[in-house]
Amino acid sequence: MASNSPLSSSPTSVSFLLAYDTAYEEIDRDSSVTTSKSRSSDDDTSDSSGPITLKEFTKALPPILRQQKENERKSSTHQKCQTQNALRGTKDDPVNILFSRLDLTLGEWKKYAMFESKKNYTRNLIAMDDETFTLLLLCWNPGKESPIHDHPCDGCWLRVCQGKIQETRYEINTETDRMDVTSDEVFEDDAPAFINDSMGYHKVGNPSTSTPAITLHLYCPPFNQCKIWLDPSHASSPSKACMCNYSEYGVTHLCEMFEVNMI
Ligand SMILES: [Fe+2]
Prior knowledge:
The chain has 4 helices and 14 strands. By secondary structure, the protein is an alpha+beta fold. A 7-stranded mixed β-sheet has the order 7-4-9-2-1-12-13, with helices on one face. Strands 3-10-11-14 form a 4-stranded antiparallel β-sheet, with no helix packed on it.
């Protein structure tokens, strides 16, 4: 499971995040990223199962994703691609394994945790490379949620950094033209959760009426728009939402509002 952006209740003023025109930067803008733990090498992530820092994670991730794409290209059979796709989000998925090793107890994510009381939630860019991944920290106000949305990418991985998160999944019922609920779960530990479009669509929110929640989201590869369903009784009429980030690399800036066009 995982989610996308915050939006207002109006279908013409949905505010989402988009940060794909931003040059990639090393996330290690302050020394705390690497000095939080003593390590022999920043590159030593491939032969270890131990915890890793944000810098180590963002350095190790792109080669894994590029290799996966290369494997897909070289694959002579459709079955091999299906096998790789079936691995995504499982305990045997290299991305899932690396993401689960990211040590959230270091608190590196805290510098990106920026709330805005007028928004359901904020999207805060931690790192991206404009090719293989986007890593975001989402800050959820109490009782607020995303719309139902898809994930036009290979997958979305999510971990809970603080508080609780509720995920409701849907599938399209072509006979009734409704989005039918297929599952409804609350997550409060930091184990990775995963969703892609073959598993359905979802909305994510903070079920607490008093406590803010914070989640870490990994999207591979990046995307700059997605479908949202503001009315689950009209499954064949999603809206298109573009996105913007509330902050990038720990710096807040105003989010532009994008028109949502029916598709
Ligand atoms: Fe999502």
